[in-house]
Automatic annotation (TrEMBL):
GO terms for molecular function: oxidoreductase activity, acting on the aldehyde or oxo group of donors, NAD or NADP as acceptor. Coiled coil: none annotated. The lineage of its organism: unclassified sequences, metagenomes, ecological metagenomes. Residues 4-448 form the Aldehyde dehydrogenase domain. Keywords: Oxidoreductase. It comes from freshwater metagenome. This is Unannotated protein. The keyword Oxidoreductase applies. Belongs to the aldehyde dehydrogenase family.
């Protein structure tokens, strides 16, 4: 029996003690989810859809409560936290249309009829990181439940409060007992058990690339299905022909949102050399205006880092002598506050330029021409997201086809929409979440041939 004390990143004071499940408790819940699967998969499509809509509607009427919980637990700005809770509602609503549309195919074959079915997998193990506790959980459990699977979900040890509340709301909405189970616990205990337990048929993991690789190795033993959403070092590529004012005004939010603890953070700004000075001048004004303050204020654009450990990790990237171009502001007093920081490295060998920092630090590097921009952008082991700023449509098309990343935006920094697929190239991940095809990741295709020869 062990407990974890949640610490507020804003006050550094204890918030609540959480019981952490051990292996025996985890096994019991996995078994319960496996039993619940037998009946949940048989619920009529229309009824399953109706229950998911009821869940969405209950989340909708608890948006403010869920958002306040996230501010308390994670120090997210209240504006972001409301969006995050709303995203859970939207994802549930979107996939509530799926049970009634989980079509197979009828394929022409000789001597009979051939039909494919989309069958649910069984118990799905979802492992969630601390940076976006609500949306990342919902991207897993929404489509998983809609396809007829049951779910065991492990929130990050640091941020379990909203997941626990979502588990309660699910029951209240009529999701049957055992179908959606939230298990707070350690990654090395509960998360690892999802990987080794034979009744967990798929892992959906979001987190660091290191742990993702370990999970991938573990899944090999049982050829367990796996989706990975891992780290990033995304490029914000700005051509001289772009609306530089707009690109500069948007660049702080693109990397400092959620205090940079965002796998899609545009943490490398690549700016065409001829526009470098103009951009840096405008960018400095925008960074200094960026509001780092008490996240419960409606005006807050950035809160503190999640923990003292994360503060120490981010600080390590800025040793004495780091070429800091300029910094924004931060409050004084308690809280894991880190000022938005802009670096101007000499070249691309800099550690802060190459590695994922997961904090409010961005590196700016000039490039010469289109080919140079593509080469520099792709010179990374990651490939999650990125932005391209140009008024030349043909160039924007060429560059967006050439950049090796799963989610790009042109003249915009927004990469997440629940209607569209999300996921990474290279070491940023495996598989895709969200969008119309997410159900494929939570079903097996079964092919059945019916002989009609008599
Ligand atoms: P992490 O250490 O990899 O943890 C992620 C989750 O995995 C947590 O729930 C953690 O539990 C659990 N875990 C840790 N070790 C495990 C193990 N051996 N077996 C099974 N589960 C284990 O990552 P983090 O520090 O929470 O999050 C930051 C990282 O996530 C960043 O690198 C970021 O880029 C990445 N991320 C990626 C995306 C994306 O969509 N691509 C989204 C968000 C975050 P504990 O809480 O107990 O450690
Ligand atoms: Mg960790």
């Amino acid at each position: 029996m062990s407990n974890y004390t949640i610490i507020s990143p804003v006050t550094e004071k204890p918030v609540q003690d959480i019981h952490l499940a051990d292996v025996t408790e985890t096994d019991a819940i996995i078994l319960k989810a496996a039993h619940a699967f037998e009946s949940w998969r048989k619920v009529n499509p229309g009824d399953r859809a109706r229950i998911l809509r009821a869940f969405a509607s209950l989340v909708d009427s608890h948006i403010e409560e869920l958002a306040q919980l996230e501010v308390l637990n994670s120090g997210h700005t209240i504006g972001n936290a409301r969006w995050e809770a709303g995203n859970v509602r939207d994802v549930l609503n979107y996939y509530s249309a799926a049970p009634e549309r989980l079509f197979g195919r009828q394929i022409p074959v000789p001597n009979g009829i051939d039909i494919t079915f989309k069958e649910p997998l069984g118990v799905i193990g979802i492992i969630v990181p601390w940076n976006f506790p609500m949306p990342i959980a919902g991207w897993g459990f929404g489509p998983a439940l809609a396809a007829g699977n049951t779910v065991v979900l492990k929130p990050a040890e640091l941020t379990p409060l909203t997941a626990i509340r979502l588990g309660e709301l699910a029951l209240q909405a009529g999701i049957p007992e055992g179908v959606f189970n939230v298990i707070p616990g350690k990654g090395s205990v509960v998360g690892d058990r999802f990987v080794t337990h034979p009744l967990v048929r798929k892992i959906v993991f979001t987190g660091s690339t290191g742990v993702g690789k370990q999970i991938m190795r573990g899944c090999a033993d049982q050829v367990k299905r796996l989706t990975l959403e891992l780290g990033g070092k995304s490029a914000n590529i700005i051509f001289a022909d772009a609306d530089i004012e707009k690109a500069a005004a948007g660049a702080p939010g693109a990397v400092f949102d959620n205090a940079g603890q965002d796998c899609c953070a545009r943490s490398r700004i690549l700016i065409q050399r001829s526009a470098y000075d103009k951009f840096m001048e405008l960018f400095e004004v925008a960074v200094k205006k960026f509001r780092v303050e008490d996240p419960s204020l409606d005006t807050a654009e950035m809160g503190p880092l999640i923990s003292s450990t994360q503060y120490a990790r981010v600080s390590e990237f800025l040793p004495e002598g780091t070429p800091i171009a300029f910094q924004g502001s931060k409050p004084t007093g308690p809280g894991y506050w880190f000022a938005p920081t802009v670096l101007a490295p000499k070249d691309s060998k800099d550690r802060a330029y190459r590695e994922e920092i997961f904090g409010p630090v961005v590196s700016v590097l000039p490039f010469e021409d289109e080919a140079d921009a593509i080469r520099i952008a792709n010179d990374s082991e990651y490939g999650l997201s990125g932005s391209i700023w140009s008024r030349d449509l043909a160039r924007a098309v060429r560059v967006s086809r050439a950049v090796e990343a799963g989610n790009l935006s042109v003249n915009s920094n927004s990469s997440v929409r629940y209607w569209t697929p999300f996921g990474g190239y290279k070491q940023s991940g495996l598989g895709r979440e969200l969008g119309p095809d997410a159900l494929d990741a939570f079903t097996e295709t079964k092919n059945v041939f019916f002989d009609t020869q008599g």
